[in-house]
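Late entry, written up from scratch paper. The run itself happened at the end of the previous shift, but nothing got recorded in the book at the time, so transcribing now.
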Amino acid sequence: MSEAPSPSPAAKGGELGHRRLGTPAAVAQALAIGPMFSTAIVLSFVSNPVNGAAWTTPLAVLIAGLGVLAIAYSISLFAKKYQGAGAIYEYLTRGAHPAVGIFAAGVFFTGTLFLGGGGIYLGLGILSQSFWQEHISTSTVPAWWLFLLLFLALVLILNYVGVRIAIGAMLTFAALSFTPMLILAVTIIAKGGANGNTLSGFNPSTTSLHVVFNGVMLGILLFVGFEAAASIGEESHDPHRSIPRALLGTVGASAVFFVLMAYAISTGLGKAVVDKGGWAFNPAALDQVATQYIGSWFATIIDLIVILDATALALAICVTIGRGYFALGRDGLLPSFFAKTSRHNTPWVGNLVVSIGGIGLMLLGLYSHTLDRFVAQQAAPSREFAAFLVAATAGSFAVELVYLFLSVAAVWLLVRDKAAWWQFVIVLVAIATPLLGFYGALKPAPHNTTNLNWLALYWALGCVVIAAIWFGICRVVRPQNVANAAAYAAGHHGVAPLDESLDYEALPE
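Output as recorded:
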């Protein structure tokens, strides 16, 4: 365990906003999991009869949710002790060792460029083009990449003018998205689905434990992004309480929501359809049940709220990425211009990094013919969708690797604090969860780049190599900054005592 370092004289840059954010803001950031977006896209992966859970998808999602809740608990142990704009970087630097923190930061912030700094914009472009074609006009359809650039510009503008505005947009989009999806689930269950309500989807003997755990591994991907709540620690008035609450509360509530949606959609389609891949291989499955059980007009609403939720996800990831690169620039581990802030106290240079992921993956979707193989294999309907799938999976691999680092380091926190035995059990579950995630995603053959997941693994390993090279350069060129990593957050942004006479949420920008 490393002690809190002394502030580095090299640490410099702009300042983030005042400590005005509370638990609602942390919850908004934790919603980077994109519950509605994940329900529409990722949940179908879990139902895959080839390498997923098929009919036992609800059980697989329930077990995955419990595993990720254990990871959230492990991260909350750090959040109760440390806070900083770099979040994961500061947690591992101060809670484990500077070398671990810096290397993990490289993996995490490179991986998130694939996941939410690029992949989500591909998803928004594809979803928006599909929505236009189905509900607005079939004669004149804008290119998907135009929608991508439009959403990228929107996210950058909202994050430039202030984090409170961006977070307000996230909460609004999430609130608008949740109600229609809940109405759909309740309606399907109330009507008995295709063959009546049954709990057989929670019975492992319906398939097998092996099949269930294949789905568990994929189900972990539903929750990737919840750790984004930690990125607003320096701007929260009580981060040691609000961020752990947001982490645990959001993961727990999302787990219940995902289990409900998994049960409702599988029940609505029916066991025979799900077991034949009618959910996994049908991108319109959510529209299908919405139309069947409520009406085509409701399917239009569902399509719209998925786009809104994906926009909220993009906003949250931009907050995380921007503050991460800001913290690394401030501590002298990246060029100092990354630590520049706008007159609204937002890290505008760090925010711009998301454009590298967004535009880079846009070019891959347009011109990378190596991704055409997945269209030919019917693993993706188009080249741009294949780019989205590979990028999202690669980003998930990188982030899950950092989850593993955090969970292992959490054991030391528990030993130091002489924690209770049950806390060790939870953290051991947290350690096992990403390992099982890797196993479930990479078990299918072939084990080469003709397999989408394995190509994603090589992209993720690229993130690891970049992180290792970057750390090596920092270690040689800026050894003092490496030794004093995360010192700025420790020395200049300790949590000040609350002034109980102030309403922090109501303070002006």
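The chain has 20 helices and no strands.
(Scratch paper discarded after transcription.)
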